[in-house]
Amino acid sequence: MSATPHDLIKFIDSSPSPYHCVQAVVQRLVGAGFSELSSELVWPKMGVGEGHFIRRNGTLIAWRNGSGDPAGAGFRVVGAHTDSPNLRLKPTPEYQSHGLTQWGVQVYGGVLLYTWFDRDLGLSGRVFTQGDDGLVEHLVNISRPIARIPSLAIHFNRSVSETGFKPNKQDHLPPLVALDWDLEQSAVDHLISESIELDSDQIVGHDLMLHPLAPSVLGGVREEFIFAPRLDNQASCYTALEGLLDAKVGEPTALISLFDHEECGSGSAHGGDGALIEHVMRRIVTRHEVQSDGGFERAAANSYMISSDMAHGVHPNYSAYHDGAHKPLLGGGPVIKTHTNQRYATDGETAARFRTACAALDIPVQEFAIRTDLRCGSTIGPITSSNLAIRTVDVGCSMLSMHSIREQAASADVAMMAAVKAHVLGGSN
Ligand SMILES: [Zn+2]
């Protein structure tokens, strides 16, 4: 199935946490005939056109074997990230205050905090129980309005619209979840055990977070917009997945890597700065019947990666924040992101390859470079390209409200980005 904005919003709404995002990708991969491999076990020989994937926590790597020897034909890679800034529960979150039950939270990534106030919030993530053969992971998705962070009445802070909103992260973010909860069991354990039908004393660990409940929609007069949470960066995960499913089998091995932990710097065992992607690529090279000296290193040298993360579209009310000649438009096509100090991995060559791919498909391409007097954000591109020595371009679809609880992008960009990814993953560029 080719990428559409309607399908993207379904994908996002089924993915309140990185673990659910991985699960949504797995369901589609399995439906397309991909089979799961385990990092712990020996892998079979891989036939041309076969699709496989591995997953580790909130990270998934999937690939379809090309017709060429991976050392000589290389990989075509699309990278993205499954995580989004949000509020996450502390290990023992629950406490009582002034007749109310609250949960202590940690801020994950660069959250635009004011947008989390006065929202109806659900609870999602994963919990672990002890099974006969070790720990068992259970996904949790409680999509009903359990929690809310009420804003302070303007009567107590009359100058907030002039002086700015400056919440204290420890004191002002804990949501209210109940009027005094007086059962022996915590409200968290009660909700989880009810949701996955377990006794709460079986739960031995959790990674839980809050998510907004308002459904994603197509908006605007002609449905030209997408209003949704987590567009950064589930929209890129979605177009990477659909691009892989649509790509023809070319000579290179087509691989997508959807990483967790980008929003906190990518430094984890399975993040963009972890060893997982290198392990997987090495194993793909070594499972091929043709072996040669320096196989993995040759494969890296023959590879090309699209690092895909959302891009800053020009905001009409704040257009002064963009450089005059680098103002990507919503709906204007994929954006190439360039930063000479390597906050983006793009260079002249990798950008040229991406532009050529867009031109072959008659897809417009836009350019972003930050104003020279502003600090530039970054993404997985510089990290994975420096670890793997793979030529990389950083690209994304234009969006507004980045890191808000509810973001905005353009419907038209979805199919364009998926098509370019399919073209490159198919080895045509
Ligand atoms: Zn991002």
Number of domains: 2
How many β-strands, per DSSP?
Answer: 20
Compute the CA-based radius of gyration. Answer: 22 Å
Q: Trace the largest sheet across and list its strands.
A: 1-2-3-13-4-14-18-16-17
Q: End-to-end span in angstroms? A: 22 Å
Q: Which geometry do the CA atoms define?
A: globular
CATH topology of the largest domain: Aminopeptidase
Mean pLDDT across all amino acids? 94
Structural notes for this entry:
With 429 residues, the protein is α/β, with parallel strands linked by helices. The protein folds into two domains: 5-84 and 229-425, Zn peptidases (Aminopeptidase), CATH 3.40.630; 87-212, Roll (Aminopeptidase i, Domain 2), CATH 2.30.250. Helices cover 26% and strands 28% of the residues. The protein has helices at 5-13, 18-31, 70-73, 160-163, 187-196, 231-246, 276-286, 295-301, 348-360, 380-388, 411-425; strands spanning 35-36, 51-56, 59-64, 75-81, 86-97, 100-108, 121-131, 134-147, 176-179, 203-212, 217-219, 225-228, 253-259, 304-308, 311-312, 335-337, 366-368, 391-396, 398-400, 407-410. A hairpin with a 2-residue loop joins strand 7 and strand 8 (134-147). It is globular, with a radius of gyration of 22 Å. It starts with a helix and ends with a helix. It binds zinc ion. Residues 81, 232-233, 262, 309-310 line the site of zinc ion. Zinc ion is lined by residues 81, 232-233, 262, 309-310.
